Amino acid sequence: MKKLILVILASTLLQALPVAAQSTTPTDNFTQAIVDKVVAAYGGDALLLANSIKVIDYNKGPWPGEGETPDIPELWRINEELTIDFAGQRKSLLSYRVPRTTIDLEKWIQQGERTIVYDILHEKYSEQNWATFARLGASLERSSDTLHARRLASLKGELDYAGNDYFRGRLQQKLTYLTDSGERYTYFVDQANGLIHKMLRQHSRAGSLLYVFANHSTDSKVAFARDMNFFVNGELRLTSVHRAIELNPDLETAFQGFDEFTPWGETIDASELTVKAISDGVYQAGSGRALTVFIEQPDHYIAMGSADALAENFAAAKELSQQEKPLNYFVVTHHHNANVRGLDNALALGASLVVAEQHRDTILSHITVTEDDHKIISLPPRAAFKLGGLELFDIATAHSSHYLLAYLPAAKMVLAEDHYVTDLKTTKPRIYHDMVRFADALNDLGIDVETLVDIRGWRRFSMEEFTQWTRDFTPKTCPPGYTICANG
Within a 10 A sphere around the Cβ of 298, how many other Cβ atoms? Predict the structure, then answer.
C-alpha cells in the first residue's frame, strides 16, 4: 500500500511541476509508461504484431500560391490508400488526385529495389525507384496517428518527456523525438486515455507542421482518428474527408500489377547543368526544373523561366553564345510559387521584371530588395506587347487567369511554362484538359507557330503533333470497380 501511495504522489508531482522543471527530470520509466499507454489505446498487440495494415485517407485542402488567381488558392482533393506489408517490407499505394480540370489515378507498387507506377487511366507504367520503402507514402504515414503509435513503440530510449499541455481542455503529456536529419517530433498524448491528439513536426525549411487528430474510433481492433487537419505555420493545408483502417488486408490484390500496360518510354536526364541553343540566339540552361531561357537581342538579353539559379544559368548561356551582354528584362509568366522564387536574382543582375498587371502586387511581395518603379513593367489585361524580337500575350488558361505567353516570330516558336512539360524523350506525353485549353487559347491568337517549348523541360513539340494530341483528347472518368474515385 505504501508503494502505491508513493507512485501516485510522484505522478502527481510530475504533473504539477512547471514544464521547464519537468523536462529536466524525466525518467525512462515514466516516458515508457506513456508509450505503453499509447500502445494500449491503439490496440496493443493487435497493432504491434500485425503483419500488414491498410491506411485509407481521403482529404482536400488549399495550395497557397497555386490558384488560377493570386488571391484564391487552388483546392486539391487527394484520396489515398496505403498498404504496408511489414513482414515482406513492401508497400502498395493507390492514389487518386483531382487538381484543377483533370483527374489522376495511379497505383504504386514498391517491392525490394523496384517501384513501378501504373497510370490506370492511360494504361501506362514507369519505374520510379526513388520511391523506396521508407519514402513511398511517407506523407500519408505522417498523417496517421495509428502508425505514429506503432512507431513510438519502437523508439524506446530515444524519446524525451517534455511536460504537459492542454488540447481542448484535456491534459496532454508531451513526448519529443529528434530524427537523424534534425527534425523534431512532438507528440501530445491524452493523459486519461493515451490517444494522440496532436503531432508537431519542426522542419528546417518548411517550418512548423502540425497534425491535429480527433474523433477517434476503433475498427479492426485498432484505434484511429476519423478527423485529421494539417497546418503549415498555422495555415490549414489539408482536412480529412474520409479515413479508415484495416489490419491484415488482402495483399494479393494490393500488390497485383497490370500485365497489359505498356511503358511510357525513355526519359530525359536533367540532373546535370546543361545549356543548349534551341534556336538562333535563343538559349536554354539549367538543371532539374530550374531551367531558364535567354533570348539574345542586339545589345542585351531577355530571360524567362526559373530565377532560382539565374546567375549560374546566365553564365552558361553566355559561355555558349560567346556574347557578353547585360540582362535587361526578366519575364515573369505568372504568379505561382516556382515562378516568383529568386526574383531578387534578376534584379541583382540589373533586369526589369515584366509582369501581368494583375500579378504585380503578388510578385512585388516576393521581392526583398528595394527597387524603383521603373524596374517593373506591367502589361495591361489581355494586351499584346513587344519586347524587342519577343512578343508577349496576356491569355487566360486553366493554370492562370492572366498568363504571359511568349512568342518569337522569327523562329515561329512559343515559349511557355508548366502547361505541357514532360520528361519523355520521344513518346506521346500524358494529355490533360489544361493542355487542351492552352491549345484553344493559342489557336485564338492566330499566330504562326511551328515549335513549342515548355521552359521547365528539354522536350520540344511541333505544332502539328501538339494540335493532334489535344484534338484527340477525351476526358477521363473513374474506371468500374474503383471505390477510391467512385464519387468523382
Answer: 8
Percent of the chain with pLDDT over 90: 86
User: Residue 382, Cβ neighbours under 10 Å: how many?
Assistant: 11
**Would you say residue 6 has pLDDT above 70?**
no
pLDDT tier at 249 (50, 70, 90 boundaries)?
very high
CB neighbours (10 Å) of residue 414?
A: 25
Q: Are 395 and 419 in contact (CB under 8 A)?
A: no
- Mean pLDDT estimate for the chain: 92
Interhelix angle 145-153/28-41, rounded to 10 degrees, is: 140
Q: 348-401: per-residue pLDDT in tens?
A: 999 999 999 999 999 999 998 876 666 899 999 999 999 999 999 999 999 999
Query: Which residues have C-beta within 8 Å of that of residue 80, sequence separation ≥ 6?
Result: 56, 57, 58, 93, 94, 95, 96, 137, 140
3-state class (DSSP) for residue 343: helix
The pLDDT of residue 373: 60
Q: How far apart are CA 158 and CA 405, in angstroms?
A: 54
Q: What is the pLDDT of residues 106-156, one digit of tens each?
A: 999 999 999 999 999 999 999 999 999 999 999 999 999 999 999 999 998
Contact status, residue 363 vs residue 332, Cβ threshold 8 Å: yes
Interior angle at CA 431, CA 121 and CA 240, nearest 5: 55
Task: Look at the chain and count its residues.
Answer: 488
- Non-local (6+) Cβ contacts of 350 within 8 A are 326, 327, 328
Contact 224, 145 (CB under 8 A): yes
> CA 42 to CA 52: how far, in whole Å?
15
Nearest to 334 by CA among 267, 379, 270: 379
Alpha carbon distance 410, 389 (integer Å): 8
CA–CA dist 415, 337 (Å, integer): 19
Tracing cell 535567354 back to the chain, one arrives at: 294
Beta bridge partners of 331: 304, 354
Distances (CA, A) of 375 to 30, 89, 312, 360: 61, 56, 22, 12
Q: Give one DSSP letter per residue of 244-257, joined into a string.
A: EEEES--HHHHT--
Closest CA to 294 of 311, 273, 269: 311
* Widest Cα–Cα separation across the chain: 94
- Residue (of 128, 110, 114, 126) closest to 265 by Cα position: 126
